[in-house]
Design goal:
The chain has 110 residues and is α+β, with helices and mostly antiparallel strands. Helix content is 16%, strand content 48%. The chain has one domain: Calycin beta-barrel core domain (Lipocalin, Beta Barrel). Strands 1-2-3-4-5-6-7-8 form an eight-stranded antiparallel beta barrel. β7 and β8 form a beta hairpin. The N terminus is likely disordered.
């Protein structure tokens, strides 16, 4: 009987751990669906680093790309980013699999 109780407890704790997200679904490269802008999301310990790659519109070189790194934290099934313009929350749309946030929509490229 003790063996069955132990098995049930292990099973319940395993399910609880599976239900708790870690944000790993956000990792990788994402491309804006309406432009050439990209986001790269990487794990950094318990947090994340989000690097945005944006083509400069008014640069001297038409192919010049701006790179901006931001810190992010996984909270409430979303990534909360803190950058120079304040806070933004990104979530993955369950219907499309796209990353949605800050007025943009991104599709995973890898």
């Amino acid at each position: 009987m003790k063996v069955i109780k132990l098995f049930v407890m292990i099973f319940v704790f395993s399910l609880a751990a599976c239900g708790k997200g870690s944000g790993n679904e956000y990792l990788g490269m994402w491309k804006d669906v309406s432009s050439e802008d990209k986001l790269k999301i990487e794990k950094n310990g318990e947090n994340f680093i989000v690097t945005s790659y944006t083509k400069l519109v008014f640069g001297l070189d038409p192919n010049e790309i701006s790179e901006n790194k931001m810190a992010a934290t996984y909270k409430n099934e979303g990534l909360e980013l803190s950058g120079t313009l304040g806070m933004a929350t990104f979530v993955i749309d369950q219907k499309t699999g796209h990353l949605i946030g800050a007025g943009s929509e991104y599709q995973k490229v890898n």
